[in-house]
Structures are given as structure tokens and as C-alpha cells.
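User: Sequence recovery, please. Input:
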């Protein structure tokens, strides 16, 4: 998943860090607090109510129907189970707001079950009584309008404006709102599915997928490699396919397909670059689905089929690093998975590092350096936002009793990625690459926790040279707050030139504009971030807009930062374009800072409420909860 951040105290998913800057100084020596690692940071998964340690769901057979009129999924989930403890007499799965009609054993006889009391975060455990010989249970169920994983779109909310659309977002613990499942990242299973949808629509899953529409509206899927529940995915809509090469391709609404294909035409080469780094891609096909604009995040690494936001279709391939990120997840996350959500950095930190290695191999070191520096700025921002002494800035989190979505901040991404970069700089790139290749191969289709990874890292790499272990000081990264003093910084060759241009502009000199023709998106981001630290005068804003047509930009990253600067500087000519942007963009990375900035003044709050009232139906249910907290 491409970066998300939650506002403190909110139990909903997906809110990004603000653009404040900060940092922290660490003590010279930080030791791992034994009481914390032993007592608090244990390896239990506190975010599942299932009993996977006693009875394990090994294979899921779904047989479901998608009803757009009722906004409901109904059918059966048949689990092949395996007892981990011989005396176990119950099979317990996670549910949230599901209606359970009945349950049968594999032989067709009725099974007794109990739906426990619902927890506001975890949902309700579904406990199914087992007979000694039980090997299979079939659950008859329906979803409700409270399903947090599902977004149902009316035709008007799609690009084609003619047919409805449905997609899921299961990470972190939202799969349980559309499937009765043991919903923990440490539980892996295979699945097959039969999905009935209205005729004329295509259905896709995180599995082997069709490339043409079924005349009957019935699709069958197969995933033979074990995956955790958060990688369960379904999309249904007016979708077409176009191949990139023999194992990669693009799905999108017909109106977006040509644009998406052009943007992603180098993805096949990207897969080869990834394989050159860390070994073969093990999932068969790698396809991309471009979703309608309400999709709340940048991308989701569903196996075989990345779900992504249309906001990365900039027209110049300048935002495809997001695809590199989701591709990298097929090694870090999908192949080797964090055991609990406390270990989330083992997914995202590795993926940030891998993403930037892919982009370096494709675009060069100067380009990758920009990604690292933008990421460091994001790390500074989230530390300032959470507090430089906050335990939530530790890499190894303590989310017991909390919504795991609260851990989906830039910390596991950027702090984790920079730790791996420090290890690379300490041991050398060749040794780092050999270590990671071995790590992915030896732990494929398994889970990993922080303590076991530390042991693996020491045994297979850092113990080789005593100084390496001391220089990395991994406990400081894992169990201490803030940004470690050893955090590496990237070269700033291209950003130094942007800084020079920024200084020229602030002095009233626009001659730098002649050098911006080859600026990448990230140079523009750096430029606009620098300018956003203080409001600009109307004359300065007008000069920027006249020269670069920023109000009309089709690049979402530039647009978001420009509109934020316009709000701070009260540049009203940009407001209509900003409203249009907010009406069609559901990606929370962009929504949160704009609504937050508007709510900072009484005049802006009036504007925010008026825009949000119209835009809210276009946003994902989880996004609605988050923005509801801002626009009160």
C-alpha cells in the first residue's frame, strides 16, 4: 500500500501527515528496553478474534453474488480447516457487520454457531462448533451497508457515467466486513471463488483473472499461493483489458484504458528490473487496475492485480514510482508478510527501499535521490505531527487495544526504508542485495516478526563485522522515538538547483522559469513545499500562475501543493479549480491537508463545509469518517 497516515485519536483509515517539519536528537546510546519487548511487544496478534492457533482455515471457496441494487454481497464461504490442537472443538473467524444466515458442515448437516458481542474495532467473533471428524464448514452470509471494505459507486461516480462500480479495500482488518475470515496478517490460505455480477460487467480479484467480459456475468477465480486476508480483493464494473507484454497488462474503464496503457507501457520492463535485483517474480501475471477517482489511497498490492488511483495518470509517466512500490510488495509483504500489524514496517520499510532501488535502476541515482529526500521530508513531517518522543514513532509499534489503522503512518514506510538504506551504506550494496535475495527466498510465503528479523539480520549479515552492528544500532531504530542520528540523507544535486530557483523567485527574479522545462514532479513538489512555509503575496501567486499555469495543472501532486499554497496565500483565482479537484479526487493524501487548511479560518470553514457536502458521496466510507472529523 502506498503511504497513508491516520489522524491521532481517529479509528478510521487513511489520513496523511501535514507538511510541518521537525526532527529529534537521540541519546548517544539507546538500548532495547527488555520489559517492553518481552511484555508489551510480544508476538501475539491482538487484532484478530479468531483461533487460528487452534484451528486453521487452510483453503477458502467463495460462491457469492454482487447485488448493486441492495449494495450487498451474499453467498457462501466454505472453509477447509485443519486442527492445530487435537482437542479444539470450535472454529472461530472474524466478522464485522456481517449477517450470518446459517452454517453447515461438509456433509451438509447443520452446524451450531454463536456470533459473539461486537467490538467497536475488531467486530464480532463467529464461533462454529466442530465435530471430531469435521474438515469443512460452509457459512451462508450477507454483507451490510456498514461494510468498511466496500465502496459502491453509482454510474455518475465513474468515468463512463453509465454503469455502477464496486471495489474492496481490505487492509488492514476490513476483509472481515465482506468475508467471514481469520483476519490476521499471520494467517495465510489459498482460495478459489465463483462470483456472479450483473451482465455486462467484469469481475476481478486478487487471483487469476479474466481478460474479457463473461456473457453470463459469472466469473471463476483461483489463487493457489497462500495469502493473508488483507490481500483479498474484488472489483466489479465496466472494465476492459489491454496487454503490455506477455505477463503484464492494464485494466480500466474504457474511457481511461488508452491513457492508462500509455502511462504504464514500461511496467513490463519494471518487472524485469525488480527480478534483476531480488529474484524471480513468483505470482505469474502482474496486472494493474485503475479504479474510479474515489479510491482512497495511492495503490494496494493485491496479488496478481495492483489496485491503483487514477491520480497517478499524469500523462508523462512521472508518478509511476507508485507502481514500482506496489510491484515491490510482491516480494516484501505479499511473499514475506509482517506477522502482526505491530510489525508493519517489515512490509512497508522494505518496500520503500525496494521501490527506490527499482527507480534508481530505471531513472538513475539523481532521480532516486529525489525520492529519498522527499521521503525524508515526509518522515520529518510525521515525527513533528506525532511528537518527537511519541512511541508511535518507534518502528516496532504497540497497537494492542487500538485500531491497527493508527499504525499506517509514514513511520513504517520512511523510517523503515531509511534503516535499510543505512544497512546498505554500512555493509555495501553487493552484500545488502545478497542478503535481501536470501531473505526473500528463505522466507517465501511465510510471516516475519521484528524480533525474528533482527536475529536473522544479525546471523546472516551484521555479525560478519563487529563494527557493522554498532554502526547500525538497530534497537535505536526499532524501540526509540524520532529520527535516529544515524539516519542517512540522499544527495541533493537536483534539489539544490531548485533551492536556487526558489531564492531567485522570492527576490522577484523569474529568470529561473527558463530552466524548469525539464523539472520532474518531485522537483516541483520540492519547490512548492519550500514556498508553502510562508504565505505569498497576491503578486507572487499571480506571477507563478501566469508563468506555469499551476491552477490548470493535471498533475495531482503539483495541484494539491498549489491549492494548499493558494489557501495559505488567499489566492482566490485557484479556488474553483480546487473545488473541482476535491469533487473528483478521493485520495486522502490530497484531501486531508486541503480540508484541514480550509478549516483553519472561519471563511475557509464555510467553504470547506459547502464543498464537502457535495463531494462526500464520492469518497470511500473510511474517507468519509476521516474527513467528517476535520469538517465539523
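Assistant: Recovered sequence (632 residues):
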Amino acid at each position: 500500500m502506498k503511504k497513508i497516515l491516520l489522524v491521532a485519536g481517529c479509528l478510521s483509515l487513511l489520513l496523511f501527515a501535514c507538511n510541518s517539519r521537525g526532527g529529534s536528537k537521540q541519546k548517544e546510546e539507546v538500548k532495547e528496553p527488555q520489559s517492553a519487548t518481552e511484555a508489551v511487544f510480544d508476538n501475539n496478534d491482538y487484532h484478530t478474534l479468531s483461533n487460528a492457533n487452534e484451528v486453521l482455515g487452510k483453503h477458502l471457496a467463495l460462491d457469492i453474488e454482487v447485488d448493486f441494487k441492495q449494495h450487498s454481497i451474499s453467498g457462501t464461504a466454505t472453509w477447509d480447516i485443519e486442527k492445530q490442537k487435537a482437542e479444539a472443538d470450535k472454529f472461530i473467524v472474524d466478522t464485522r457487520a456481517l449477517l450470518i444466515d446459517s452454517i453447515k458442515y461438509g456433509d451438509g448437516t447443520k452446524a451450531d454457531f454463536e456470533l459473539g458481542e461486537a467490538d467497536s474495532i475488531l467486530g464480532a467473533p463467529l464461533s462454529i462448533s466442530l465435530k471430531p471428524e469435521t474438515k469443512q464448514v460452509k457459512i451462508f452470509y450477507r454483507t451490510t451497508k456498514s461494510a468498511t471494505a466496500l465502496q459502491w459507486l453509482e454510474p455518475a461516480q465513474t468515468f463512463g457515467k453509465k454503469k455502477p462500480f464496486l471495489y474492496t479495500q481490505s487492509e488492514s482488518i476490513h476483509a472481515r466486513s465482506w468475508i467471514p475470515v481469520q483476519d490476521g496478517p499471520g494467517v495465510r490460505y489459498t482460495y478459489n471463488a465463483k462470483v456472479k455480477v450483473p451482465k455486462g460487467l467484469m469481475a476481478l480479484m486478487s487471483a487469476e483473472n479474466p481478460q474479457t467480459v463473461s456473457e453470463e456475468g459469472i466469473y471463476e477465480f483461483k489463487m493457489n499461493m497462500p495469502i493473508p486476508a488483507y490481500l483479498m480483493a474484488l472489483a466489479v464494473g465496466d472494465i476492459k483489458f489491454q496487454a503490455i507484454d506477455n505477463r503484464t497488462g492494464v485494466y480500466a474503464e474504457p474511457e481511461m484504458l488508452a491513457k492508462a496503457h500509455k502511462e504504464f507501457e514500461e511496467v513490463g520492463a519494471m518487472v524485469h528490473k525488480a527480478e534483476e535485483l531480488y529474484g524471480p517474480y513468483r505470482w505469474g501475471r502482474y496486472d494493474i487496475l485503475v479504479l474510479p477517482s474515489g479510491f482512497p489511497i495511492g495503490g494496494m498490492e493485491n496479488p496478481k492485480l495492483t489496485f491503483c488511483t487514477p491520480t497517478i495518470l499524469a500523462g508523462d509517466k512521472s508518478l509511476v514510482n507508485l507502481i514500482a512500490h506496489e510491484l515491490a510488495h510482491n516480494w516484501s509483504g505479499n511473499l514475506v508478510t509482517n506477522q502482526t500489524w505491530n510489525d508493519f514496517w517489515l512490509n512497508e520499510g522494505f518496500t520503500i527501499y525496494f521501490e527506490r532501488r527499482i527507480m534508481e535502476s530505471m531513472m538513475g541515482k539523481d532521480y532516486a535521490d529525489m525520492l529519498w529526500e522527499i521521503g525524508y521530508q515526509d518522515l520529518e513531517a510525521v515525527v513533528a505531527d506525532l511528537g518527537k518522543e511519541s512511541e508511535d514513532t518507534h518502528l516496532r509499534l504497540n497497537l494492542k487495544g487500538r485500531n491497527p489503522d493508527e499504525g499506517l503512518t509514514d513511520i513504517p514506510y520512511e523510517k523503515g526504508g531509511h534503516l535499510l538504506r543505512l544497512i546498505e551504506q554500512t555493509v555495501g550494496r553487493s552484500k545488502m542485495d545478497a542478503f535481501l535475495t536470501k531473505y526473500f527466498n528463505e522466507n517465501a510465503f511465510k510471516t516475519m516478526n521484528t524480533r525474528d528479523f533482527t536475529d536473522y539480520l544479525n546471523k546472516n549479515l551484521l555479525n560478519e563485522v563487529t563494527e557493522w552492528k554498532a554502526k547500525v544500532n538497530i534497537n535505536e531504530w526499532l524501540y526509540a522515538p524520532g529520527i535516529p542520528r544515524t539516519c542517512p540523507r540522499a544527495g541533493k544535486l537536483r534539489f539544490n538547483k531548485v533551492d536556487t530557483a526558489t531564492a531567485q523567485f522570492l527576490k522577484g527574479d523569474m529568470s529561473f522559469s527558463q530552466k524548469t522545462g525539464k523539472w520532474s514532479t518531485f522537483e516541483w513538489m520540492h519547490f512548492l513545499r519550500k514556498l508553502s512555509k510562508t504565505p505569498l503575496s497576491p503578486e507572487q501567486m499571480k506571477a507563478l500562475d501566469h508563468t506555469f499555469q499551476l491552477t490548470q495543472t493535471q498533475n495531482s501532486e503539483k495541484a494539491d501543493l498549489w491549492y494548499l499554497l493558494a489557501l495559505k496565500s488567499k489566492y482566490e483565482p485557484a479556488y474553483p479549480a480546487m473545488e473541482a479537484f476535491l469533487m473528483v479526487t478521493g485520495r486522502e493524501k490530497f484531501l486531508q491537508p486541503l480540508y484541514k487548511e480550509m478549516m483553519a479560518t472561519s471563511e475557509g470553514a464555510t467553504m470547506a463545509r459547502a464543498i464537502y457536502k457535495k463531494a462526500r458521496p464520492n469518497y470511500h466510507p473510511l474517507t468519509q469518517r476521516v474527513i467528517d472529523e476535520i469538517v465539523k
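Residues 55-238 form a domain with the Immunoglobulin-like fold (CATH 2.60.40.1730).
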